[in-house]
Design brief:
This protein is an all-alpha fold. The protein has one domain: DNA polymerase, domain 1, CATH 1.10.150. 57% of the residues lie in helices and 0% in strands.
C-alpha cells in the first residue's frame, strides 16, 4: 500500500488544494498507519468496514476515508498493480453518513438584530 499511495500522490492526486489537503490528512492519519504495510488486495470489504466502525470519527468522515480507499483501489487497477475487478470498497457501508450529527440552530430575533448591527 505504501508504494501504491506514493505512486498515487505523484500521478493522480487531485490538483485542487482543498481536496489534496484533505486526502493527505486521511492518508497520513488513518489509512497509512492501518494499511500501509498491507498489500492492496488485503483491503477487503469486511475488514475495512469493521475497522471504520472502530474509529472514533463522524459517519461522514468515515465515508470520506472509505471513498479514498475506493479511489486507491481504482488507481491500483488503472496502474496495472492489480487485475481489473469489482472494487470491494463498493460493498462497505457507513450508516448515517448523509445525516447530520448536530441539528442546525436558528438565530433568535434579538441575535439576528445584534448581527445586523455589525454589518457595514
Amino acid at each position: 500500500m505504501n508504494t501504491l499511495i506514493e505512486q498515487y500522490r505523484v500521478e493522480k492526486m487531485p490538483k485542487r488544494i482543498d481536496t489534496r489537503r484533505s486526502y493527505k490528512v486521511w492518508l497520513e492519519n488513518h489509512i497509512v498507519p492501518q494499511w500501509g504495510e498491507c498489500i492492496l488486495t488485503d483491503l477487503q470489504a469486511r475488514r475495512v468496514e469493521l475497522w471504520l466502525t472502530s474509529l472514533d470519527l463522524s459517519p461522514k468522515s468515515k465515508a470520506h476515508i472509505r471513498g479514498l480507499l475506493s479511489v486507491l483501489w481504482d488507481f491500483g487497477m488503472w496502474s496495472g498493480s492489480i487485475p481489473v475487478q469489482r472494487n470491494p470498497m463498493e460493498l462497505v457501508t457507513i450508516k448515517g453518513s448523509s445525516k447530520r450529527t448536530r441539528q442546525p440552530r436558528s438565530l433568535t430575533v434579538e441575535e439576528f438584530q445584534g448581527f445586523v448591527r455589525h454589518l457595514a
